[in-house]
Write the structure tokens for this entry.
Amino acid sequence: MSAPVTSAGTGETNYLNASHGIGSWLLTRDHKRIGILYLVGISVFFLLGGPMAVLIRAELATPQGDLFSSDVYNRLFTMHGILMIFFFLIPSIPAVLGNFLLPIMIGAKDLAFPRINLLSWYLYMIGGVLTFVSLLTGGIDTGWTFYTPMSTTVAQGQVIITAVGIFIAGFSSILTGLNFIVTIHRMRAPGLTWFRLPLFVWAHYATSIIQILGTPVVAIAILLVGAERLFHIGVFDPKYGGDPLLFQHLFWFYSHPAVYIMILPSMGVMSELVTAFARKRVFGYHFIAFSSLFIAVIGFLVWGHHMYISGQSVVAGAIFSFLTMLVAIPSAVKVFNWTATLYKGSISLQTPMLYALGFIGVFLIGGLTGVMLGTLGIDIHVHDTYFIVAHFHYVMVGSAIMGYLGGLHFWWPKITGRMYNEFWSKISALVIFVGFNTTFFPQFILGYLGMPRRYHMYPAEFQTWNVLSSAGATILGFGYLMPVVYFLWSLKFGAKAPANPWGAKGLEWETTSPPPVLNFATPPIVTEEAYAYETSAPAKEVAVGL
Amino acid sequence: MFPNSPVFPPVSSTLASKVDLLFFFTVGVSILFSVLIVATIGAFLVKYRRRRADETGQEIKGNTLILELGWSIIPLGLVMISFFWGAAIFFETSRPPADAWSFHVYGKQWMWKVEHPEGKREINEFHVPVGQAVKLTMTSEDVIHNFSVPAFRLKMDVLPGRYTTAWFKATKTGTYHIFCDQYCGVDHSKMVGKIHVMEPQDYQKWLVGGPSAGAAVASGAELFVAKACNTCHRPDSSARAPVLDGIFGKPVALVDGRTVPADESYLRESILSPATKIVQGYQPIMPTFKDQVSEEEIVQLIKYIQDLKPAGASKAAPAAAAPAAGGKS
């Protein structure tokens, strides 16, 4: 192990101050700066897609469609989905935290292909700008799922520009996955065997496999949609001899694994948070590592559970349901493992840990309702209702975003060299948790009552639950704004962060906050398992609170 | 201040209580597990809270294999129960009873057209008798829609270019929502309707009183002549085209060796894309009637063909028994 570093990097050169000027950022090859470029990018798209959700919930507070026309409303929920899924959630943890931390966690100077990493960011931004242009010129109203023949033959609007934007952004995802896999295989520090890797790294390895194998399929689906729309080549529209279900198969073949792209990194963060804030070895390291791979592989075999009543054969539905049940089990066991990690731990409830606990709470609900939806006999009733809207927000927003925020709060001192205000961060974690559940839990009730998704107006008897949900959305909105304020504040006024404010184990805590350009003063050598709290003490904690 | 706010939908079909029971089982198991985990975490947070700034956790000694196997196998068993139970219900929804009455549903932006077995038509309204199995054969005239009656726990996508089917048996009279559950464009949320479940005698009264909604469609018999089907499909000149009398539901041998049932989808495909399936012993000479018949006219033709009985048999009521009142339109 390299000599413990306790200085806070004051006056030393680190990756933030080593070079100045916009050019040094836009042409950087430093994975840490690229992580920050992504942080800015995804935050911009979140601040576009988020208010759309507020507008949607404001409209849904009353049964009538009185705030917007149906056409505008339909474009709002479509763009909300596209921006949040492709331009916020899918990049979020891998492109921000993964980019920043992966090389450091394995003791490397950078990723395997730094220039390709920068290219990934540019592809992401170009895709995002195109989608933004589509938004400014009217957007589309097909739903983020683009079903045919609506999207190919019937829909008005900027289908092609949006499709091209998503197509280009997909390559960003593929290249990042490629970069991560090669890096993990080839650039680990001496002594860092596979089973000594932090679980955050395993999670990103599994995620990268999905990104590389799955994204090309949605790219093909998008190309075919474009071909049919522009040239009337009959792929999906029965009028031209096509099959509408073919689109659904191609689309969901990627889009189901895509949800594992969104959740696996979050689970990786969870393993880091729970071990750090219980100061204990994780329970069942091998299981958690392998379960990420299992989920990545089996996740490619369950896409038809989005299509049980699409006209797909009943037998196919049964096979997909069976496989869906299998993929649920590793996720459940991970939750048990994190719980068991707390046993005989030394637990501290600082903000990142609050997010970890919040994750477990919302993931229980999100995951278990996923099992309900995977059950054929239940899905007939709740398919395409608010039940599914609630489910996917519980796993994508509740779980994935809580993992992202927990990770951001955990590694903020490392990334920026500053501490944020612990009191306000705790308050905002609670506000987010309360706001989130108030927004989305009533939607399960609405879904079982039969309220369809993507409805601009609804029968009056559904109003009470809608009002509750909209009230929750207001609270949640405030909760999300609070970190923007105190994080930005911390950049100027926050206390300087020590190398290891949490007393955590991991190579990233053995270098300065922020790290030097090449990550380590001397390249580390690894001699122990991950999270070896019980056998060797972490560096002294110098932080606020206990 | 707020209107009547139900927490739970009506239980108005034979399927509804089955779905609800399975749902309550999964909810119950979920609550049990969630409470267990949250309580355990709560207890650990208290018992193992950090007492000194430099304190770390303690190693767990002993074999945990039984625990890990247990918490893998028990959840696996529970989700498998959910799978089998759900699959059983799902398979049942795909098998309408033999005595189900056959209705047709057409979805188009942004309305529902319903056709009763004897021909009476409704738009965005649907009258049915209680206690009678109803089979729906559905198609779309444009994009994908979805026919949903939450009170019956009934839902099925409605696609252009093919038929999808669903069935229900209502158990309680009343009026219930029909929703379109697949986003289909600007007025998706207006593509709603009402289904009225009536006592059988009230349904009969309703059936004979009042006009059909929407434009009239020629009968299958009229179309069969108007489109010149009868010039090839005749019981006497059987050399040119297969005889259609009594063909409905029977297996048909094709030139490629396959045998397919002559069901509604087969008949529809034969009208629109006759070269796809050629009957053994015949030439591929039938022209396509794509763009020459609407979906509704195809249904009338299918009903006509369903009624055709082989020469010698009496012209009895069709197998999908329609009520006695009214004649065929």
In short: Chain B touches chain A through 86 residues (CB under 8 Å). The helical segments of chain B are 14-47, 65-93, 200-208, 220-226, 264-272, 295-307. The two ends of chain B are 49 Å apart (CA to CA). The first strand of chain B starts at residue 101 and ends at 108.
